[in-house]
Amino acid sequence: MATEGPGAVRVEVLAQRLGVTRGGFYRQFGGRAELVDAMLDAWEHRSIDDVRRRVEAEGGDAAGKARKAGMLTFAPDLLPIDLAVREWARRDAAVAARLRRVDNRRMDYLRELISTMSGDAGDVEARAMLAFSLVIGDHLIAADRFVGGRARVLRDATRLILG
């Protein structure tokens, strides 16, 4: 799905790639909807639960945890899947609902971390939104001319948001 998009999530295509018959596929998954749910469950688990578990195990201050969560969430192995799910969600209401749930969980974690740095609810909300927008938007912005380079601008923006 990450390389070919949601169109690759078709029973015929998947059965052929797995070297099984359509009947064999349907014995494993009741249908395409069940497969999609299983795929989205795995994505949600990897991109939320696994990331949070790793961040908390490594410890550190709240700003460091937020930075680490962003790096892990959008690491090279997860980023293509995340972008594919976002594109798919534009055309599929069930996928959009799952994406909303995942993004809400991500925002909740950011709020939790940022609230240890600020007691102002409005500040927490704004900083969480800016931090999340930065990591999502970075992968969608094609501009390539940044004073000091893109990596430096991202570091500076993160510092402004998280301290």
From TrEMBL:
One of its GO terms (molecular function) is DNA binding. Pfam families: TetR_N (PF00440). It comes from the Bacteria. Keywords: DNA-binding. The keyword DNA-binding applies. Residues 10-29 bind DNA. Residues 1-47 form the HTH tetR-type domain. This is TetR family transcriptional regulator. It comes from Mycolicibacterium psychrotolerans.
